[in-house]
């Protein structure tokens, strides 16, 4: 069974960023090889409307069977609000919380992000998972693409 990897908008932008492109492109290679499937949310689609054209068009270069589409639901909005209420991050980071909530509710195998301040951050991950546990949701695995690619021996 293919691993379901929820990607946030930073992954799409990271494809073109000098600092992140190598690992991001290797993650996309796993996608093309059929090893993983990217789980995309309508929230990312909205965020990409503000991105440069090459970033907007990146995902359209890949076959649709590489993707699973999920939506921002009332349940995910409520869970994201709990992350804020419980003090995991501040109100300004609601979009990040929504990505995590969507991924949690859709029971992905892992959420991939380049956002080290509010998402791929050990203290924040513990906070998100503490809220998930207390409110009956599964724990969410959060990693950078560097943790999701294969390295040759």
Number of E-state strands: 5
Total number of domains: 1
Annotated CATH homologous superfamily: 5'-nuclease
**Overall spatial form:** globular
Query: How much strand?
Result: 5-15%
User: Count of helices?
Assistant: 7
Short description:
By secondary structure, the protein is α/β, with parallel strands linked by helices.
Fold and architecture overview:
The protein has 153 residues and is an alpha/beta fold. It has a single domain (3-147), classed as 5'-nuclease (Rossmann fold), CATH 3.40.50. 44% of the residues lie in helices and 13% in strands. The chain is built from 7 helices and 5 strands. Strand 4, helix 7 and strand 5 (142-143) form a beta-alpha-beta unit. Helix 5 crosses helix 6. The longest helix has 13 residues, at 122-134. The relative contact order is 0.19. The mean pLDDT is 95.
Furnish the topology, listing elements before pairings.
Layout (H helix, E strand, L loop, with lengths): L2 E5 L1 H6 L6 H12 L3 E6 H7 L4 H5 L9 E4 L3 H12 L8 H12 L4 E3 L9 H13 L7 E2 L10
Parallel strand pairs: 1-2, 1-4, 2-3, 4-5
Helix pairs in contact: 5-6
Describe this protein with a few key phrases:
5 strands; five-stranded parallel beta sheet; single chain; 153 residues; alpha/beta; Rossmann fold; 13% strand; 7 helices
């Amino acid at each position: 069974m293919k691993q379901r990897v929820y990607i946030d908008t930073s992954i799409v932008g990271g494809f073109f960023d000098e600092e992140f492109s190598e690992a991001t492109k290797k993650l996309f290679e796993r996608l093309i090889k059929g090893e993983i499937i990217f789980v995309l949310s309508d929230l990312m689609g909205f965020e990409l409307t503000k991105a440069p054209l090459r970033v907007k068009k990146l995902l359209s270069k890949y076959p649709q069977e590489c993707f699973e589409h999920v939506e921002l639901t009332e349940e995910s909005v409520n869970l994201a609000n709990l992350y804020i209420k419980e003090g995991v991050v501040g109100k300004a980071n609601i979009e990040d919380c929504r990505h995590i909530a969507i991924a949690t509710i859709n029971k992905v195998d892992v959420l991939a992000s380049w956002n080290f301040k509010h998402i791929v951050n050990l203290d924040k991950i513990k906070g998100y998972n503490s809220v998930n546990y207390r409110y009956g949701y599964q724990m969410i695995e959060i990693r950078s693409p560097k943790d999701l690619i294969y390295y040759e021996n």
